[in-house]
Design a protein that fits this description.
- The protein is 39% helix and 17% strand.
- The protein contains eleven helices and twelve strands.
- Helix 1 packs across helix 7 and helix 4 packs parallel to helix 5.
- It is an alpha/beta fold and 287 residues long.
- It has a domain of 183 residues: NAD(P)-binding Rossmann-like Domain (Rossmann fold, 3-Layer(aba) Sandwich).
- Strands 3-2-1-4-5-6-10-12 form an eight-stranded parallel β-sheet, sandwiched between helices. A two-stranded parallel ribbon has the order 7-9. Strands 8-11 form a two-stranded parallel ribbon.
- Helix 5 links the parallel strand 5 and strand 6.
């Protein structure tokens, strides 16, 4: 039995499906019982637990071979990251109490970066959970290819996509969520000692201009990228409701300036199999 958090999302769902397809048992950890119904119909056990509820997480992580941990995304954290610190405390308590055989935790490219930015949240997770006396693997994933879902309408309707990733000809490490889910499920079935880091990106790095060209190919219409000027970012994020837009802007700076990178660079990362065109075709088909 493997416990999977974040199972209602793309990555967690991919982990669970891969395990089930391999013939393994899964405990779906959900906050809302209604969201567990589909997984129960697929043969999963269902455990109700909020990621800040240590007793519920302890019950969910008890008597399992492994746990997949996915920290809820927070693109507008309070200064000092109190939200993720509360989740870390609950997870540490649960893991120490339940003592699962191994833990695979989804992390991110650049988790080791010391410059202040949004991804420091997962750096804190790695520091805290990595200190536990447990077999724990941090799967550092590149920029999600599926983030381009937000660009489908603009590409289709006006042929212009606005990019925060720039210069527009700079290759960016990206990966499909299906590749992440598959590798995470594989890692849960492996054995190692202590703390482990695995870094994952797609088959090749992708420029924003290449994304525009791929949209153009799929949509059979001209599509081009336009860079959003750097001095507009914080005001734009604030206009969209962000109360603390600076960490997100600094994260984008890190990708653009190159200091958000895998610890061992492109040469040291594992490579997924799914190409950006495959992901974009699926997103366009979904509208």
């Amino acid at each position: 039995m493997y416990a999977v958090t974040g199972i209602t999302g793309q990555v967690g769902g991919g982990v669970a499906r891969t395990l089930l397809d391999t013939g393994l048992s899964v405990r779906a950890v959900v906050r809302d019982a209604a969201k567990g119904i589909g997984w129960k119909e697929r043969g999963c056990e269902v455990a109700l637990a909020d990621m800040n509820d240590a007793p519920a997480l302890t019950a969910a992580f008890t008597r399992v071979k492994g746990v997949f941990v996915l920290i809820p995304s927070n693109f507008d954290p309070t200064p000092g990251f109190p939200e993720v610190r509360a989740t870390i405390t609950a997870l540490m308590t649960a893991i120490e109490a339940a003592k699962p055989s191994k833990v695979v935790c989804l992390s991110t490219i650049g988790a080791q970066a010391t410059q202040p930015n949004l991804l420091n949240q997962l750096g804190l997770v790695e520091q805290a959970l990595g200190a536990l006396p447990a077999q724990i693997c941090f799967l550092r994933a590149a920029w999600f290819m599926e983030n381009t879902a937000l660009d489908v309408a603009a590409a289709r309707d006006v042929g212009i996509v606005h990019s925060f990733l720039q210069p527009l000809d700079k290759p960016v490490p990206m990966v499909a969520t299906a590749d992440i889910g598959h590798l995470a499920a594989t890692l849960l079935q492996e054995t190692w000692t202590g703390r482990r880091i695995v870094e994952l990106e797609g088959p090749r790095r992708i420029t924003p201009n290449q994304i525009a060209a791929t949209f153009a190919k799929i949509l059979s219409r001209p599509v081009r990228m336009e860079a959003v000027p750097r001095d507009h970012w914080e005001r734009l994020f604030a206009s969209q409701g962000a109360k603390n837009p600076t960490p997100r802007a600094k994260m984008l700076d890190g990708f653009n300036e190159g200091w958000i990178e895998f610890e061992n660079g492109e040469r040291g990362s594992r490579k997924g199999q799914i190409e950006i065109e495959s992901v974009l075709r699926q997103l366009v088909a979904r509208g």
